[in-house]
Structures are given as structure tokens and as C-alpha cells.
Specification:
single chain; alpha/beta; Rossmann fold; Alpha-Beta Plaits; 2 domains; four-stranded antiparallel β-sheet
């Protein structure tokens, strides 16, 4: 693979040689198709039966009974009725983790700050049994329309769409829980096909992403209720977009990092970190590279 020199420099600055080799090997893999069962419309058992009936072989993961890895397919999964009816949602394993870690609470006011196309939004609705109050924010009109389509298709009736730049949300609003899956360089999602044309993955993209990430996270902290929790995630494995962004955003506040713990976590291919409370996921044939951190706002906080 022909990786950009600046990316290799950044990876070698952050990780040891063996870890960088793991990451580069992960980039070279073709990822399996993965999906999430939408229990607002169906059951895990019904999904298993439909997949088996149509000749799809699958595996499960320890950390979510709704997550499926398609190991062998018989045709296009989008042709199945369970896909057409919104009973399943095609979603990467890594992107299923932030909603699980946030652990949405029924009746809570929840904000998804960068919601389109809606995978995590509808997962939040599912995990809270459609009984939370979710505001899904998306500034781009076309992406907001796609978000609405997926919300309707998935039957996520507890979601309200706010077409707005989340950095400009009025501070009159406040939320019990916030998910910020921030726009990023996508350094964790790269693969051998990405580098057929590298003109879109640049230092400038990383710099623009960092600026936006800091602004979004600062806004999230301001509109998070005292005692509330926030999950910040990116599909980047670069510290500049992750813990360094968090450090800048929480400086001068009473926001603390909360340890991340959930059943089955030991099966996830984690990368070494400077802080055991944060998660970096290594790109593999099953997972995209990802970063996740959970924050809690003190009772009296800026």
C-alpha cells in the first residue's frame, strides 16, 4: 500500500513500530459486511432465520446481540425484505459502539450532534425502546433528507430532526445525554482501495477537522446538563483529532473522563493508549479504526 508519508509520520509519532504494522495491515484488509438488527421492527431470531433461509452465513459478537457479521453472502443483502422494510441496518461494528457506550436512558433528552445518515441516531432510539426524546442535528439539507428517510424507515418515532449547524445550537437548549460522532479525517477507515486516489486525504483535511471538532465539543459541553454524560467519537486513530481535541475542549471546565466498560469489550481489537479510560480500535477485516471517550459534566460546571 502506498500510504501518504505524513500519515506514516503521525502514526509512528503516536504508536510503537509493532502497532503501526498492525494498523497498516488492517488498512490492507477487505472488511466484512456487518449489520445491526432493528429491534423496533423485528427480533434477532427472525433475522437469523431470514439470513439462513436466503443463504447468508453470519457470525455474532459478544458485546451486542443485535450485531451480525456476514461471512458469506448469497446475492445482495439489499434485495432482502428485512432490509427493504427497515428491519436491519447496514452499519460498521465500530460505529455501533458509541451508542452502546452512551447507554441512552428512556425519557432522557438526547442530542445526536452530527446525525446523518442516521445509523447511530436510530440505534439510540432502538436502545431506548423509542421512549427517549432524541434531537438529531444535521446542517446539510440533502444529508438531513437522507437522515429523515432512515429515521422513518427504521421506525424511530422518538426522533426530531434539527437542520442546523450543531456549533450554533442555541444555549437555551440542554440535554441529559449527548452523542458527538464528530466529522474527521477518516484515518481509521482507510483501506487499500482508498489509496487509489489520495487527493482527498490531506493534512489540510485533518487541520479543518480539528478546528470543527473543538468547536463542536465545546458547544456540547455547554448544552449538556450538569450530571449529564457525553460520548465523543471519531473514525480517526490520530491523537490530534481525539484526546488532544478533548483536552483543549474541557480545559477550565469540571468535565471528567469516565472509564468505558461493557460486556464483551475484551473481544475488540484495541490499540495502546496513553489513558486507559479511552478506547482506540485498530482497523481490521471486521472493525474500522475508531476513537471513543465518555465524559461526565459536574453538578456545577461551565
Amino acid at each position: 500500500m502506498n500510504l501518504p508519508d505524513f500519515l506514516l509520520e503521525m502514526l509512528n509519532d503516536q504508536y510503537d513500530k509493532k502497532t503501526v504494522e498492525r494498523i497498516v495491515e488492517g488498512y490492507s484488509k477487505d472488511r466484512y459486511l456487518t449489520l445491526r438488527v432493528n429491534t423496533l421492527k423485528t427480533t434477532v431470531k427472525e433475522t437469523e432465520l431470514e439470513l439462513e433461509k436466503n443463504g447468508f452465513e453470519y457470525e455474532k459478537v459478544k458485546w451486542s446481540k443485535e450485531a451480525f457479521i456476514i461471512k458469506k453472502s448469497n446475492g445482495n443483502i439489499r434485495d432482502l425484505e428485512i432490509y427493504k422494510q427497515g428491519k436491519i441496518y447496514l452499519q460498521s461494528l465500530s460505529s455501533m459502539l458509541p451508542p452502546i457506550i452512551l447507554n441512552p436512558i428512556e425519557e432522557a433528552d438526547i442530542l445526536d450532534m452530527a446525525a446523518a445518515p442516521g445509523g447511530k441516531t436510530t440505534q439510540l432510539a432502538m436502545l431506548s425502546n423509542n421512549k427517549s426524546h432524541i434531537t438529531a442535528c444535521e446542517m446539510n439539507k440533502i444529508r438531513a433528507e437522507r437522515l429523515k428517510y432512515n429515521i422513518d424507515k427504521q421506525g424511530a418515532t422518538c426522533v426530531y430532526i434539527m437542520q442546523k449547524d450543531a456549533r450554533n445550537i442555541d444555549e437555551f437548549f440542554s440535554f441529559d445525554q449527548i452523542l458527538l460522532d464528530a466529522p474527521c479525517s477518516g484515518s481509521g477507515t482507510l483501506n487499500k482501495h482508498s489509496f487509489e486516489n489520495t487527493k482527498y486525504f490531506t493534512k489540510k483535511l485533518i487541520e479543518r477537522s480539528i478546528k470543527s471538532q473543538i468547536a463542536l465539543l465545546k458547544k456540547a459541553i455547554k448544552i449538556l446538563k450538569p450530571g449529564g454524560e457525553l460520548v465523543y467519537s471519531t473514525c480517526s486513530i490520530l491523537k490530534q483529532e481525539n484526546e488532544e481535541v478533548v483536552k483543549k475542549a474541557i480545559q477550565g471546565t469540571k468535565v471528567e473522563i469516565v472509564p468505558i466498560e461493557f460486556e464483551g469489550m475484551e473481544d475488540i481489537p484495541l490499540l495502546p493508549t496513553s489513558d486507559k479510560k479511552i478506547i482506540y480500535i485498530c482497523p481490521t477485516e471486521l472493525y474500522e479504526g475508531f476513537f471513543i471517550i465518555k465524559l461526565k459534566k459536574g453538578a456545577k460546571c461551565n
